[in-house]
Design goal:
311 residues; alpha+beta; Cytidine Deaminase, domain 2; 11% strand
Length: 311
């Protein structure tokens, strides 16, 4: 289930699945440090949102090529969870294509070996098949997921850069007219599942320099349409020059959060921060992800007058 949820196969990671919270359940992944001295900080990253959302039960899974290191991290996490009154339903260590339950008793003759645990192949699992049916791609690593946001069509990037220059040199409409154009254009593409043209991307990027016009795009997003906004802003981001990526990356990240793709949202935040370390929308999104805020807390806002007034 984990690769299906995350969108990629984790490595050197701790993954927490939660159940029985006061709100919607959530899942989290953190990097597993190579230095045990850093385990405490990692455990805190998992404990804090679990306590905030009154999680009752968790499954914790460690992915590592170092069994002893992984087991130490899992044991520390389990102790911390139980101390806080959270039931650890299962504690699994995954190495390669084998998993081992840390909660199952081990006899006196047990020895760690290459064939310990249970072999598995997630590529043939029904969850994977369901993902194929839904059009969801499971990548082999988080790095592949991050790379999926990087454009490889340099001619398209150059064309968008030229369009940005053209729109930047064009006398601008009033803010109200440009807001209406942004709203109408994005609503049409989201409804039709189509991709903005080079000219439209250039105009959108120029508009998004104004936070109020960017917020017009932001306010259109809903949980029902989030997947289509993800597709739209991914297509925009992959054609956007690096120095202008903060706004489209943040919008993509927010849409990903609404759609329940936390890992993709974090990758988008990373892209936004690379372009502008102080970009406020990226900071807000990172805070929401850190706190494991559920997408149900968001309500779309399409009132252009209120948006342009910053309300």
């Amino acid at each position: 289930m984990v690769p299906y949820i995350l969108g990629f196969r984790p490595d050197q990671s701790l993954v927490m699945l939660t159940f029985g919270s006061s709100g919607p359940s959530f899942h989290a992944r953190v990097d597993l440090p190579r230095d045990p001295a850093d385990f405490g900080e990692v455990v805190e990253l998992l404990i804090e949102p679990a306590l905030r959302h009154h999680v009752e039960r968790v499954v914790v899974i460690g992915y590592s090529d170092d069994p002893e290191l992984c087991e130490e991290a899992l044991e520390l996490t389990a102790v911390a969870m139980v101390t806080e009154g959270i039931e650890v339903v299962e504690l699994l260590r995954v190495t390669g294509t084998r998993w081992l339950s840390m909660l199952e008793p081990r006899g006196p003759s047990w020895r760690r070996g290459a064939d310990e645990g249970t072999a598995f192949d997630d590529r043939t699992h029904p969850f994977t098949m369901q993902g194929v049916i839904e059009g969801r791609v499971t990548l082999n690593s988080r790095e592949e997921l991050a790379d999926s946001l990087v454009g490889t069509d340099f001619e398209a990037v150059d064309a968008v850069a030229a369009a940005v220059d053209d729109w930047g040199a064009t006398p601008q409409n009033s803010r109200e007219l440009e807001a209406q154009w942004v709203q109408d254009t994005l609503a049409r593409h989201v409804s039709e599942g189509s991709t903005p043209s080079v000219t439209e991307v250039g105009r959108l990027l120029v508009a998004c320099r104004d936070p109020a016009l960017r917020d017009v795009a932001w306010g259109l997003m809903s949980r029902e349409s989030a997947e289509r906004h993800v597709d739209l802003w991914r297509s925009v981001l992959r054609r956007t020059p690096a120095e202008m990526q903060a706004a489209p990356a943040s919008l993509l990240g927010f849409a990903a959060w609404l759609a329940g793709h936390g890992a993709l949202a974090w990758c988008a935040v990373d892209r936004a921060v690379l372009a502008d370390p102080d970009y406020s929308m990226a900071g807000l999104l990172a805070d929401a992800l850190d706190r494991a805020l559920p997408p149900t807390t968001w309500e779309p806002m399409t009132d252009l007058v209120a948006l342009l007034r910053g309300r």
